[in-house]
């Protein structure tokens, strides 16, 4: 319990001149005051807050970049599949075109040279005995070949 002493001083006209508030010496007031942070702790706190904001911004930018990269990759995969299908169709069409061109070339050359027309005259030839020529050819082919070193 706290005891306070008040002393009032009045003048002759009953006006308050002075008052005195006295507190007994037995009273002890205990209060826990917040201690001030040192400048070092305040600087560290500001730096940490700034770094947290930068980290958050970088994560946000990375997420957006990843979204666009994934969207581009999906688009490229679709285009790659379409290109593969077009290339396969193109190869088939080129094969058909080559076949038609070859048929067309054969047909034109047949018409130009008239090779399919009937023969107007038949020529008969006598059979020739080639057995002697075959033997001579074999002897020429069976000659011994001297190999050179290194060849």
Provide an overview of this structure:
The protein has 151 residues and is mainly alpha-helical. The chain has a domain at 39-113. Helix content is 57%, strand content 10%. The chain has 2 helices and 2 strands; from the N terminus they run ββαα. It has helices at residues 39-113, 131-141; strands at 4-10, 16-23. The chain has a two-stranded antiparallel sheet with strand order 1-2. The relative contact order is 0.04. The model has no long low-confidence stretch (mean pLDDT 77).
Layout of helices and strands:
Layout: E1 4-10, E2 16-23, H1 39-113, H2 131-141
Antiparallel strand pairs: 1-2
Keywords summarizing the entry:
151 residues; mainly alpha; two-stranded antiparallel ribbon
Task: Write a short abstract of this structure.
The protein has helices at residues 39-113, 131-141; strands spanning 4-10, 16-23. The chain is mostly helical.
N→C terminal distance: 126 Å
What summary fits the major beta sheet? 2 strands, antiparallel
Inertia-based shape: rod-shaped
Low-confidence stretches: none
Looking across the biggest beta sheet, what order are the strands in?
A: 1-2
Determine the strand fraction and express it as a percent band: 5-15%
- Please identify the structural class as seen in this structure: mainly alpha
> What is the subunit organization of this protein?
single chain
Give the fraction of residues assigned to helices.
Answer: 55-70%
Radius of gyration, taken over Cα atoms and rounded to an integer in Å: 58 Å
Mean pLDDT across every amino acid position: 77
């Amino acid at each position: 319990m706290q005891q306070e002493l008040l002393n009032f001083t009045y003048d002759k006209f009953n006006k308050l001149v002075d008052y005195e508030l006295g507190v007994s010496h037995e009273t002890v007031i205990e209060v826990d005051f917040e201690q001030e942070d040192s400048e070092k702790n305040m600087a560290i706190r500001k730096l940490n807050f700034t770094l947290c904001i930068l980290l958050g911004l970088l994560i946000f930018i990375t997420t957006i970049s990843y979204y666009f990269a994934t969207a581009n990759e999906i688009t490229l995969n679709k285009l790659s599949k379409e290109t593969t299908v077009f290339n396969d169709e193109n190869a088939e069409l080129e094969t058909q075109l080559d076949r038609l061109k070859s048929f067309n070339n054969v047909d034109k050359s047949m018409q130009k040279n008239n090779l399919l027309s009937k023969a107007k005259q038949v020529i008969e030839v006598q059979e020739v005995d080639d057995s002697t020529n075959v033997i001579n050819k074999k002897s020429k082919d069976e000659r011994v070949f001297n190999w050179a070193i290194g060849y």
